[in-house]
Design goal:
Helix content is about 20%, strand content about 25%. It contains 4 helices and 9 strands, in the order H-E-E-H-E-E-E-E-H-E-E-E-H.
């Protein structure tokens, strides 16, 4: 951890104590895990305390950890020249309709909300992560009362992930149709969707039908041949 981040992490741990669950550094960025019950109090201090002064909420997004740590790419038999892709269909995008997505064996909560904060005064950035307690009905407090820029970001997270924001004044879908069923960014949602929509000139209205396309892998299996280069003897190389 760099010296400025190490110092900031120590300040955060001393200031908030048990109000934060973890404070970690990776790739020269600091991430603070906060429980939903402490999110508003921690965010209020981060915004109003002159020592922090995180005046701006840059971004807010949802995360689904349903298949965290699982991958379709097997590289244990690869060498420096080639590898195999898409060995095991574990993602929802490759599953057939009605199949169940593979779930990673982890005690980590499934849904989380990530906030990216910026302090103009101190020229610092900070990432907050808040895990929802209930995977069946994920709920976290709304921060629209602290940063108005969270309004549409929270609506997008609700639309794409189904995460509810307690206290949001106008929590409704933002990107999908009003009659859309499901949340497209969830890991168990098929990439091709469940229904398709078209306008029926006879009925003079938009109708929904089962998806007529089949799921398929768009990334082909790639095997690159191993090219062996003959290394000349040392004396021959020196003469050359």
């Amino acid at each position: 951890m760099s010296k400025p981040l190490h110092k900031l992490a120590d300040v955060l741990r001393r200031r908030f104590g048990s109000q934060i669950d973890a404070c970690t550094e990776q790739d020269d960025e600091l991430t603070v895990d906060v429980a939903p019950k402490n999110l508003i109090a921690v965010c209020t201090t981060l915004r109003d305390d002159p020592g922090f002064s995180y005046e701006q909420l840059i971004d807010l997004c949802g995360v689904d950890y349903l298949q965290f740590g699982l991958a379709e790419w097997r590289e244990d038999t690869s060498d420096g020249a080639g590898f195999s892709r898409g060995v095991a269909p574990v993602s929802a995008g490759r599953l057939h309709f009605g199949d169940t997505a593979v779930t990673a064996e982890s005690e980590q909560p499934r849904f989380a909300v990530v906030l990216h904060l910026l302090s103009y005064r101190h020229n610092r950035r900070l990432r907050l992560r808040c895990y929802a307690d209930d995977p069946q009905m994920p709920v976290v407090p709304s921060v629209t009362g602290l940063w108005s820029s969270a309004d549409w970001a929270e609506r997008e997270a609700f639309d794409m992930y189904g995460i509810l924001f307690d206290g949001h004044q106008d929590l409704r879908r933002l990107l999908t149709d009003y009659g859309f069923v499901g949340h497209p960014f969830r890991k168990d949602f098929p990439l091709v969707g469940n229904v398709e929509m078209r306008y029926d000139p006879e009925q003079e209205r938009v109708i929904y039908e089962p998806v007529s396309i089949e799921t398929r892998v768009l990334v082909p299996r790639v095997i690159r041949p191993v090219v062996e280069t003959e290394i000349p003897p040392a004396d021959v190389a020196e003469e050359a």
